[in-house]
Write a structure and sequence with these properties.
Layout (H helix, E strand, L loop, with lengths): L2 E4 L9 H5 L5 E3 L12 E3 L10 H5 L5 E4 L2
Antiparallel strand pairs: 1-4, 2-3
Length: 69
């Protein structure tokens, strides 16, 4: 299975990753704050990930890691 992981404590919650995800499975966690005080991004349904890595490519802080099966 493809896997996407986020370094939540480094995320500044810009939402760019969510805007480019073709499967629309990335969202900001509005109920959580990271160490920097931002709502971090995360994946909502890992099983739908196609490992296109568009999220990791657009992330200005390099907090996303994509692993293909």
């Amino acid at each position: 299975m493809n896997k996407v992981t986020f370094s939540e404590d480094l995320c500044k919650g810009c939402g760019l990753c969510a805007s480019v995800c073709p499967k629309k499975i990335i969202a900001l966690d509005r109920e959580k704050l990271n160490k920097k005080g931002y709502h971090p991004a995360g994946i909502t349904d890992q099983s739908k990930c196609i490992a296109c890595a568009m999220c990791a490519t657009i992330c200005p802080d390099v907090v996303i890691k994509v692993e293909k099966e």
